[in-house]
Amino acid sequence: MENNDAPKLFSKPWLIMALVAVLFIGALGIRLYDLTDLPNDFYMVRQYHSLLVARGLYYAHLPTAPQWQRDIAAAQLKAEGLVEPPIMESLTALTYHLIGENIWVGRVYASLFWLAGGLAIWLLAKDLSMRDGGIIALAYFLFLPFGMTASIAFMPDSLMTALIAWSLWALYRWEKRRTWKTAILAGVLTGLAILVKSVAVFPLLGAAAGLVLSRGSLKRILVDKQTWAVAVITAIPTIIFYFYGLFIFGTLSGQFGLRFFPVLLKDPSFYGRWLFTAAGVISFAAMFISLTGILLFHTSAPRFLVIGAWLGYIVFGFAFPFHFISHEYYHLPLIPIIAIGLIPVADLIVRQVALQKGWLPRALFAGLLLLGVSMKIWEARNYMGSIDYRHEISYWQELGQKIGYDKNIIELSGDYGFRLAYFGWVSGAQWPSNADVALRALAGQTQSDFATTFAEKISGKDLFVVISPPEWEHQPELRAYLTAHYPLIDQGDGYWIFDLRP
Amino acid sequence: MKKFLIIKIIFRERPWMWKASLILMLLASFGLRMINLTNPPLDFAPTRQLFSALKARGLYYQYVTDVPDAKHQLAISLGDVGIVEPLVLETLVSQTYRLTGEHLWIARVYSSLFWVLGGLALFLLIRELASTSAAMIGTLFYLFVPFGVIASRAFMPDPLMVALIIFALWALFRWQNTSRWKWAILFGIFAGAALFVKNLSVFIVVGGFAGVILGTRGLKRSIRDPQAWVMALMLVLPAGIYMLYGMLKLGMTGQFALRFFPKMWIDPAFYFRWAWTVNWSIGWGVSLLAAFSVFLADPKRERPLLIGLWVGYLLFGMTFPYHFYTHDYYQMPFIPVVAVSIAPAFRLLFERFFVRGPGFFPRLVLLGVVLVGLAVQSYAAGRQILNLDYRNEPSFWSEIGDKLGHGSGVIGLTQDYGYRLAYWGWQGSTAWFTSDDIGLRYLAGQDVNVMENFTEDTAGKRYFVVTMFGELDNQPVVKDLLYTHYPVFAQTDEYVIFDLQHPLSQP
User: Per-residue confidence at B252, pLDDT binned at 50, 70, 90?
Assistant: First the structure.
């Protein structure tokens, strides 16, 4: 155990609380910057999915809306299916009822959840008796560039990451106190994290297993009632959700398709790409310092907790190899793990600063920390301010009107038609993009010949709408076929509309 | 067997083990720098590298007798691109050309060698300042940080300057701890050489020296100490004499223009840009760790030197605010500053790690973390080096040079102020302003009258050559002047040459 009489960075508790408060205020401030811009710069497909779900839930209870909009919103909600429990979407829809439909509501919630995750990191550092080191870990968690970008996205990952942090805190607290109250809390928070997004199971199962194994005796573990209780409480919410999704709602099975690509595991370059993708998210320096930090924990419980979480993350990568190198946000669960590994290293350094006489070293420490944070805020602010997607709203609205809300269409798009669906109120079937074809080829699926595929896809459709110039450019066969056989009834900036009707 | 190797040998600081590791590190880092050796030196600060390349060729051709006289004279005149620093590296390279023939990669070998030798001095410095394990980490950082790998291959005086700075700091720290004449003289030699090679080293060298004098030895004692006076004298003498000679005889005053912009100090964006430059070149995380680590150094023995280095670096940035974020190679001296500064933190980490008597597995993990870190840095640097291929450049510029006839009377908006055209095209040219140049002059409070400058600069010229079409688009007045009033003499997708001698109409 850490010596609590050791010198503290700031002898007055309010000073450290003020520093923590400044970090939280800065973290919230940067996340609310450029709030009303569209969420197009970070995995927009996933974010627009949530926006459509939230709008569908909102319009279901909005009798004042025109009937055609209510019908389309309901159809779009149904078409989106069930991927994860729509927790954030429901919360957002409820908020829409209070303040009206605003695209930024989901972003505010995501930001607040992330900040709450930071609180868990801070509390864990306190429970480890490494409060001073926790400041650095907290700053890392709140101001990591990728974290700042990802944590404003309207998708469940921000909440999942925060709950992973809370779960790790609760698991450690349970191990430290071994009371029923802490066991139930650990089970509830771990279960919630996995319910929000099931992939949280990997790091959390690993962490929990590591923690339990740190006790040493397997026999003692197996007869421990609290351990069984934590396991059962953790599993219940997800089991209920999957039962509902698979057997009652019925669409959940679809989300397991095109995820597992064992062929990648045999490719050495996959591991290099994994490492560099992960490092792009968490930074190499933090990764190596955090790994070193594991060796510096004073007791085995936190060490095994973090090692277990790391192993869980590695298993996660083996389970989803394609997504691990193509979807950066799959590495988000690593951020709280890295932050926790930073705590002992940071604490070691900060305590040495605390040993110095006088206020100057402390002031310089705080100044350097705030300089580092300010720089990251400035970088993020410049990035956010440099792009503006607001002009797209009118474009998609006008295109939706041109197409007509009642048309049955098929689209060639770069975003699965989400922006047209959301702003233009027009949804349609999707013609496969080049990336889709490549993904299916990687999965070993064979494709029918063009004519058969085309005939199947356009069956019953009124219009073929092309809204992605790059895809249009890179699909010469489709371009030639459409141009030769169907009239081009409208064309404009970035779109082509063909009439498929006889 | 493996356990024995890892626990008994690697983690017990056996002298032969760290010596072998050090040699391996130095050789590996040198090998890394030799990747893609023959690629033209356009991957980093190309203007500065080509400046040195032209100089070296000019010096070399003074000794070349088996070429036509016109080429002989042209090489010498193209090498007359002004004077910035003493031609130390250029002379060394040109003398090597006499043995091997003209190969641009020779400069790469020299620069890399200097940087790697600096690693040796750095290891010795950190070992004395902190510990052998910390020295390993600091030296690994210095040798393998990707920005350092790329920058240290460049044909410019900076790698040699940085190496000499490190040797000077090592001698300085030895002198601080021993007070022996030998180290005082060695400091004088290395520090004087560093300032002579590139006077910008003054900030770090004098910063470190001042830190030791003020913080460790004491000002009063130092004033009475003849060793300190000799060190100071040797420090300033070579560069001082050269500066005086340069200003009086070589007309070097021009190099001080457009460098000092104190009004940027009050612009917060300047500090953020500075920090951003540090972030992408060296890494914000490691730089912050280095800054925190200064607190962990021994207040009397170690910290004064470190504080001196940091203060010197900060003064360097304040003196050249514009260049500090537009010229990334200004950050090169900061690499050893960070490498030395992180040493106290790593000493503490290793102490904390070993004090608990860790077993085989934790030691193996630690070794693994270091090796993976090393592999990742090397891979990142190697990938950057390999991803760039400029081998098509010489033939491109040669073609333009042939079109222009290698004579006088050419003005151009071409890459690197016409140095590519001069080096590979054997064609001298007057460089027309880029939009950045115009911006810099506005920043310095100067006014640029484009029409007036165009008339003056094109007077008597035969051709205006453009290879930077983006730049031409940025200057619509010039673009309009050229396309409206002058016929195109030759053009492809990559260049256009306007005939200034036969205007279509008077501008």
Answer: low
